[in-house]
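To fix ideas, we reproduce below a protein record of this kind.
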Amino acid sequence: MRRRASLLTGLAAAAAAVVPTAVPPAVAAGGPAFLDARELPPQAGTAWHSGPVTAGTPDPLPFCVGEALPGATSRHRAFWTDVDTNAVQVTVVERDETAASSLAALFGTAVKGCAERAQQQDPDIKAEWRDFGRVVTEDGASVQGVRTTHAWTGNDVHLFAVGRDGRTVTVVHWGRMGTFADAPVDAFKKSTRTAVNKLYRG
């Protein structure tokens, strides 16, 4: 499968009620730039592929941060490999820097509490959160991780980057089967720096 659905199976149930029913349209060039497929952490034995930059929130919503995304002002781009690794970047341009700072903090808090929420929502899930620290770029970025073990789908590991440049906020979610030992944290931090550096100050 192009994007492995089991990464989100059982984990995005609480967010499913707010998934958009219509497919958001692709948007014309302009606005904050997004990552290119080649700028994601290399995946052995396969290349990354990417979809268009699209208006609205992704479907399915990203694990951990989906409920916090403002649908009306979000734009996103999906990425996938030919195996079990996928990613999505969502970018939001807020009305001012104060609002953007608050939104970035909201995303960070959503990821930090994600493991606990996942366990509360599904007794078959065991989850663990880790803080992988800051990334020095523009107005700042941070990287966190969540590992989940599900009785039916096994181990999944997720990395999240939240960064800001002026009034623009971006979130990058990377996920695959595996544990924290399988997560390319250093390479993902490099992708995070690139993602934030490509934003503009609105």
Notes: Residues 1-24 have pLDDT under 50 and may be disordered.
